[in-house]
Amino acid sequence: MSALVTTLVLGGARSGKSAFAEQLIDHSNLTRIYLATATAGDDEMSKRIAQHRARRGDGWTTVEEPLALVDTLTREAVRGRAVLVDCLTLWLSNLMFAERDPEIEARRLARFLGVAKYPIVFVSNEVGMGLVPETPLGRAFRDAQGRLNQIVAAAVPQVAFIAAGLPLWLKRPSQEF
Fold it and tell me: Which of 130, 143, 153, 158 is the most exposed place for a label (fewest CB within 10 A)?
């Protein structure tokens, strides 16, 4: 297995992207950190969080941070560790509800990735391939998600798109664009 590199894992809802991202880190010899951006705002979300924890099993240290992603990565992405950020989509919605500028936060994350020395695997939803959202907030979210994904994809060496649990590699370290 080749060395783990910072990777963006994209896909639709229930596409298998989180499980794929976990496998990338499971196959490394690094301490596994799960940086969760979700908040359990209702029973359904609490169940989803519990399902993710059960699937991961033991061997992961969970750090919960809904907003201060770059600050937390600065602290957690250190020698001997691999960090899984699940997910950028929920981080984005948290930023928007907190009335923080997603573009500024995305650029801050990209600057951090330019100097990050240790592997981080990001999970993010691809939300721009379906119906046009009905509401202005929905359209603003879809557009912000597309921009965030583009910014992170440009800043990382590796990007995979997951469909039906299968990876399609969009960007690998050996590719030049």
Answer: 130
